[in-house]
Amino acid sequence: MPLGEFELIRRYFAAASCAQGAAGVALGIGDDCALLELAGDEQLAVSTDTLVVGVHFPEQADPFLLGQRALGVSASDLAAMGAAPLGFTLAITLPAADADWLEAFARGLDCMAARCGLRLIGGDTTRGPLSLTLTVFGRLPRGQALTRAGAQVGDLLCVGGALGEAAAALPLVLGQVAADGVHAEALLARYWSPMPQLDLGQALRGRATAALDISDGLLADCGHIAQASAVGLRIELEHLPLSVALREQAGAKALTCALAGGDDYLLAFTLPPAELAPLQQAGWPIQVVGQAVAGSGVQVIDCNGAPFVLSHGGYQHFGPSRD
Ligand code: ADP
Ligand code: MG
């Protein structure tokens, strides 16, 4: 049995002496961000993400879009914790110093940084196969972070918008399908310019009981909430928000995109039922897709209440779905 990505992290890194709790560390490995204690009543939220050519994006990727996407993906982890954005660092490995490429990449980065309210504060530049590591920093009032733990039986399971669109765009991104359909542009924008739900994350502070951002697919990511919160999550197929663009582009694969497609970078969270109406009335794009139940794991049920089984559960860099 190959070593899965999360088992690998658990065995070699989370179990290491240097990863054990310490004064000043409010939350370590295992959530969307780590939390460090600051003076006063605040905590610092930190998260790092790497994008590698040929794994996360194709070699010919448009550098402007890549700059946008790299920062959007990273900032999404701040949104998942309810943190207010502060700054980010950029460690970039480049095969060559191509001025045109760099100019476009920096513009893309700038564009997303302005949208997120993040400042570039440092980084590292080296030569090698193209890879990008962005570390984002945000701040939170102490004790108010949204973590993956905390969902209660009876809570509603919610998402921050229509699911699966980035996954439906993937065949277009990879050039497997001509990007000339009426929906291609909108879907490609969802892939290349994921808009981290930073404002929604902050609005959910003190309201949502658990949250994360969907990076590996709804099913796989809800599995993290279920595990960390020690509850079961039931997703109702008929309540999955599927856009017209998704249905028309993905056809029979629309449900698979919505349940198992990564890259949406929308928030998934649990809400006590009484919190829903005020948030929706305030205009937040919240869709209820299921609820937290007694038990464990994530179950999808169809409109007859029968279990719906999807063969592909979500993306892992090592382990079952890859090998
Ligand atoms: P996300 O999808 O939110 O970026 P991941 O699924 O990549 O989070 O990672 C899960 C958790 O494991 C996070 O808390 C992350 O910080 C931690 N993690 C991942 N890789 C390592 C590593 N090599 N060393 C220590 N912690 C790690
Ligand atoms: Mg995350």
UniProtKB/TrEMBL annotation:
Pfam families: AIRS, AIRS_C. Mg(2+) 5 binds at D216. It is an enzyme of class 2 (transferase). Mg(2+) 4 binds at D32, S47, D77. The keyword Ligase does not apply. Substrate binds at H56, D263, Y315. Reaction mechanism of ThiL seems to utilize a direct, inline transfer of the gamma-phosphate of ATP to TMP rather than a phosphorylated enzyme intermediate. This is Thiamine-monophosphate kinase. The lineage of its organism: Bacteria, Pseudomonadati, Pseudomonadota, Gammaproteobacteria, Pseudomonadales. The gene is thiL.
